[in-house]
Amino acid sequence: MNINAPPKRIGIMGGTFDPLHYGHLVAAEMARHEFALEKVIFIPTGNPPHKVGRRVTSPGDRYEMVKRAVQDNSFFEVSDLEIQRKGYSYTVDTLKELHELYPQHELYFITGADAFREIFTWREVQSVLSLSHFIGASRPGFDPHEFLEELKRDYPEFLPHMHLFDVPALAISSTDIRSRVKEGKPIRYLLPESVRLYIEETGLYRI
Ligand code: ATP
Ligand code: MG
């Protein structure tokens, strides 16, 4: 083993994925290349604390949609780590578990610009920021620069862990896809065909 080799990097793409769409896949693929990530693990949330009050599709269905979507990219995989956990899912617990699974790797948590701005509201933010790097991919309608100013002021020691980068803009969201299905509008080309067919077969989002 070459002790001078830079540590390997694992990408983590967390999300509700209700359903998964091309915005998620583009952010993950561009981050993989830009930050030389060995692979990207998609981790669907089990019981997301920030989505209380809205009906979230069963973890089994969301996991299956992610599994289908990542099948044709050998750098992508899906993990049921959060789905298996009891109670609410907190990123801090996931990062600790991943460190145990990959003790030699650096973790890079990929978010869209909207989620990047919310990191301060996460549980045990100090630990979260010390356990992982964060990559904020641009997302239409969200400007993360104000957040960076706050970070410079309040947590300057974590700045080297925070990375913003531009991806081709895709104004796609799961919320919009769910309402389109409900209203009988097309969703083709917004998400992989395998996911669209799963939604059609199972009747998800129709009511
Ligand atoms: P919802 O509308 O239900 O919130 P969403 O489209 O935001 O769904 P999430 O599962 O909430 O999807 O997002 C998972 C991660 O992917 C978040 O970090 C989010 O910022 C990022 N993301 C989602 N869509 C895009 C997009 N179009 N471009 C860049 N990042 C995205
Ligand atoms: Mg979202």
TrEMBL record:
<dbReference type="GO" id="GO:0004515">
    <property type="term" value="F:nicotinate-nucleotide adenylyltransferase activity"/>
</dbReference>
<dbReference type="Pfam" id="PF01467">
    <property type="entry name" value="CTP_transf_like"/>
</dbReference>
<keyword id="KW-0808">Transferase</keyword>
<dbReference type="InterPro" id="IPR014729">
    <property type="entry name" value="Rossmann-like_a/b/a_fold"/>
</dbReference>
<keyword id="KW-0547">Nucleotide-binding</keyword>
<keyword id="KW-0662">Pyridine nucleotide biosynthesis</keyword>
<keyword id="KW-0548">Nucleotidyltransferase</keyword>
<keyword id="KW-0067">ATP-binding</keyword>
<dbReference type="InterPro" id="IPR004821">
    <property type="entry name" value="Cyt_trans-like"/>
</dbReference>
<dbReference type="GO" id="GO:0009435">
    <property type="term" value="P:NAD+ biosynthetic process"/>
</dbReference>
<comment type="pathway">
    <text>Cofactor biosynthesis; NAD(+) biosynthesis; deamido-NAD(+) from nicotinate D-ribonucleotide: step 1/1.</text>
</comment>
<comment type="function">
    <text>Catalyzes the reversible adenylation of nicotinate mononucleotide (NaMN) to nicotinic acid adenine dinucleotide (NaAD).</text>
</comment>
<feature type="domain" description="Cytidyltransferase-like">
    <location>
        <begin position="12"/>
        <end position="180"/>
    </location>
</feature>
<comment type="similarity">
    <text>Belongs to the NadD family.</text>
</comment>
<dbReference type="InterPro" id="IPR005248">
    <property type="entry name" value="NadD/NMNAT"/>
</dbReference>
<protein>
    <recommendedName>
        <fullName>Probable nicotinate-nucleotide adenylyltransferase</fullName>
        <ecNumber>2.7.7.18</ecNumber>
    </recommendedName>
</protein>
<dbReference type="GO" id="GO:0005524">
    <property type="term" value="F:ATP binding"/>
</dbReference>
<keyword id="KW-0520">NAD</keyword>
